[in-house]
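lol ok so funny story. i was supposed to be doing the assay writeup but got distracted and ended up predicting the structure for this chain instead. priorities right. anyway since i did it might as well share w the group, maybe its usefull for someone
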Amino acid sequence: LFGDSDDVSVFGFSSYITQRNNMLAQALRLVRGQSPNGGAGVLNEKLQIRSGSTDEIIASMNAKLLYATGDVTIQNTGLSGSLEFDPKTLFIYGGDMYINTNILGRAGIVVLKKNGQGGNIYIDPSVTDINANIFADGSVFSSSTAYDANGVPTRSSDDARLTDLPHQLAIFGTVVSRNTIGGFSDPNAGTWNTGNGETTNNSDTAIEYDLNKLRQFRLCYPVDSGGNIIEDDSLLEDCGEGAERSTLYTGTSNAPLIIQYEPPTEDMPIFNTVSPDINQR
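and the output, tada:
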């Protein structure tokens, strides 16, 4: 459990420590007597754990609560496209979650540490749309091919980030995690905050914790017939780098990351029983 002196970053609702402890207590009550999947696996379109060539059903409570330990990957196994959920909660205890496909419908995602293990959520750079209310003990990162000892993605340069993270991402729901919001707004600061309450002088680490830098989707000014840049914001256009936009967002923002508030549904386990604050509007 966390104490009042712990440093956390919150986007979604306040009183994180109290909410987290209440959420864990409620989750453990709901899964009492259930046997979770015991190790790493993949949550596929049948809402099952895939381990090698064998499928095992995740322990569930009336198909509304899916419970697993160890790392879990959400992907549309054997199919292309997105994975659509009826309203339900995915509870991962003592593992990390890897989101490798768009999530449609509505999901509650709770990823908590156990004995210091797990708690992070890694979103594949190809994902453009997530319909979920997210609660993580750790941080939300964009997946990478390499990580440091603390599980933070490592990318060698700004050019590497532009190459790895060109697509826009829209999250329809809430995000509560150990991230910063604008923590890397000054690249010359020299010392930056991280989402776990510490500071770092490593800019490559700090930028990974900043939700504003979760993606590097960008627009470019057009060029006239003489090769001159037309610096008119109303004419900004896709840069022709193969970047994809969110397919569900209907607003006008060109931000790399868009978080559009959507409350949990009333029948979503854990989220609907923690406290009235979880549904605040």
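The chain has three helices and 19 strands. The first strand starts at residue 10 and ends at 11.
back to the writeup now i swear
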